[in-house]
Amino acid sequence: MQSLRIASVLLFCTGFAIAQSNYIPSAVVSSSDHQANAAPVAPKALHSFDLSALDRTVDPCTDFYQFACGNWRKANPIPGDQTRWGRFNELMERNRYLLYEDLQKASTAPKTDLQRQYGNFYAACMDTDTINRLGDKPVQPVLERINGLSDKKQLGALLAHLQAEDGVGGFLRFGIEQDEKDSSKQIASTSQGGLTLPDRDYYIENDPRMEKIRAQYHDYVVQIFKMIGDSEEKANAEAKSVIDIETALAKGSMPRVEMRDPENVYHIMKVTELDTLSPDFDWQGYIGGLRSRPFDTLNVATPEYFKVMNQTISSSNLDSIKSYLRFHAVNGVATWLSSDFADAHFNFFEKTLQGQAEQTARWKRCTSLTDNAMGEAVGQDWVKENFPPSAKDSMEKLVAALKTALGQDIQALPWMGEDTKKQAEAKLDAFRQKIGYPENWRDYSKLEVKRDDLVGNLRRSDAFDWDWEMNHLGKPVDEKEWGMTPPTVNAYYDSNMNDINFPAGILQPPFFDNTKDAAVNFGAIGVVIGHEMTHGFDDQGSKFDAQGNLKDWWTPNDKKEFEARTDCEVKEYGNFEPVPGQKLNGKLTLGENTADNGGIHIAYQALMNTLAAEHENPEDKIDGFTSPQRFFIAFAQVWCENTTDQAARVRAKVDPHSPGRFRTNGVVQNFDEFGKAFGCHKGQPMMPDNACRVW
Ligand SMILES: [Zn+2]
After folding, report:
1. For the CA atoms of the chain, what is the radius of gyration?
2. Contact, 354 vs 16, CB < 8 A?
3. What local confidence, expressed as pLDDT, does residue 10 receive?
4. What is the pTM of this model?
5. How crowded is residue 430: how many other Cβ atoms within 10 Å of its Cβ?
6. Do 1 and 167 contact (CB within 8 A), yes or no?
7. Distance from C-alpha of 25 to C-alpha of 28, rounded to nearest angstrom
8. What is the pLDDT of residues 166-206, one digit of tens each?
């Protein structure tokens, strides 16, 4: 439910699920308006390399993104139920629709026990009559448990119960992760948590925009308390308590950029040392309630935070703490309670914060929720229908071509010495890959699903996931486990596993298209593969060795050279401005930008190797474009998108990925082969004199 592991993903999709809070999945929201009840419509077929997307009035050497995507962006305004709309969103919607068809069938005429189980999960989510009739009843037992807190000394045990059995977060996070310095071990880990807004900055920054958001957040918290029956006066006092506690926790939280350095969040301690950090918190009661096997040591990711948490708890009165927990309990499931709660949640989190105009249709929300809760159940049928074995074979070949190219790239690096190169090659040799879906599916047979109890299903599913995660403690690492469900449009690199992972969901157009030429596939999915591989060597990944251990394998001089080059990217991207007055954070986005830049180099090299092996001339044209030109256009067109201003601002704060425009232009302007392919001159915007190059 709340894995603490570092994994680098291709896309950051779900609102702010990685906010520093215990956030119940809520890419999706509930409502009763017309959009919410809209009937499902089959999405159109998608293609890689779309000539109609090009804006040929723009010079590719001036603004390549606009050249490659201009007409697509004009023809594809943001639908009312989205905050960002790109070509990968088209694919996400398509995958979701195909999954919906499976769920619809399973909920009416299941053929297996597994189908009956996930069909019931989906049906319970779609049963708005029951949901609206129940109002806030489904959350009442949890609120009563919180109300029963009569002494702060019981807080540890209560928090453990809320997290392990009720799916309610607060104050801190806990999970099982690989030991960063001995990746063969799975250990307990605890970290800061307990916020609701997307980032600590939202509580702290003194600019008018943030102040306005805080005022709107305050109104939302008041509204939630009134909806569970509290008077206006009481609700106002409770909202103040919630925001006071969250603000104190935010001030004590490590900033997002500092969290990116794995050394900053690695502190192995004895369990007894926790009492020194937070003497007023009953750690024994907390740990005793986690339903895990006993442990003596753990990773305390953010020790300073736990001192602040202690102060916050000891200086808050019991009622304030209860208000804070009651709000978290309701807010966490508001989306899935009756429509008044769901609408309130939507209005603040999606509409106000991110500029989403309309509620997302319920069938879409329930499809995503079911995928989220039982992804390796619903995925089993989905991949049979939507992931042909030939796609896996083609991917294996592409990955092999990219590995060869990365090996050549490392060999040819002018700034790296031989000793470090040997280590880098050893790391590359040790890369493993997973493609499509798990070899062994998770067993859901012990998860109880009821057809008329959505919130109960969510609670049981959270507890089921919690126990599953706790069960990893002290066990050997299972290299076959996945961190994403099969229909997901995304990919990831895991630094402790040293593996790259591509769910079936992304292995379709516009990323991957068996009917298209090599240039198109290397430009799209090839760059994605290169991106994930380069994560093994970005500012985070480069700190882990071939075995996935946090261990320095660089000579001091090569490290200096590396950092000089990554600093160049920090400055380059830090000057990009997605919305007026809001620049990107070059340090927050460094890992992803490095992966994008390295990825395109090695994908391009792999394409050249492939064309040479097949005796094809790169200058031969298809549709009027040479192979290099098609490669770059296919690359750029993965990132065609429109985003609301509000969502762009949230993303600039929390998303380690740059927006599509800069993922495209930021990369091609660093790569001479692009300028050559389009006949650009040095000094033009897409071929500047001060290009950055790491990998
Ligand atoms: Zn990435």
Report:
1. 25
2. no
3. 83
4. 0.95
5. 14
6. yes
7. 8
8. 999 999 999 999 999 999 999 999 999 999 999 999 999 99
The string of pLDDT tens digits covering residues 329-386 is: 999 999 999 999 999 999 999 999 999 999 999 999 999 999 999 999 999 999 999 9
Catalytic residue, from 545, 596, 641, 655: name it: 596
Cβ atoms of residues 190 and 173 within 8 Å: yes
User: To 5 degrees, how large is the angle CA 486–CA 492–CA 494?
Assistant: 120
Q: How far is the CA of 592 from the centre of ligand 1 (A)?
A: 5
DSSP, residue by residue, 526-575: IHHHHHHHHHTTSTTGGGB-TTS-B---S-HHHHHHHHHHHHHHHHHHHT
Q: Quick one: which of 52, 91, 94 has its CA closest to 69?
A: 52
User: How far is ligand 1, taken at its centre, from the CA of residue 143, in Å?
Assistant: 39
Peptide bond into 510 cis (omega under 30): yes
Cβ–Cβ < 8 Å for 333, 262: no
Tell me whether residue 641 is one of the annotated catalytic residues: no
C-alpha to C-alpha distance for 91 and 611, rounded to whole angstroms: 29
Distance in Å, CA 446 to ligand 1 centroid: 34
Catalytic residue of the set 532, 539, 545, 561: 532
Question: DSSP state, 678?
Answer: T
Confirm whether 645 is a catalytic residue.
no
Q: What is the distance in A from the centroid of ligand 1 to the CA of 10? A: 4
Quote the ligand 1 centre to 206 CA distance (angstroms): 31
Longest dimension (CA), the chain: 78
Burial class of residue 617 (count of CB atoms within 10 Å of its CB; 0-12, 13-18, 19+)? exposed
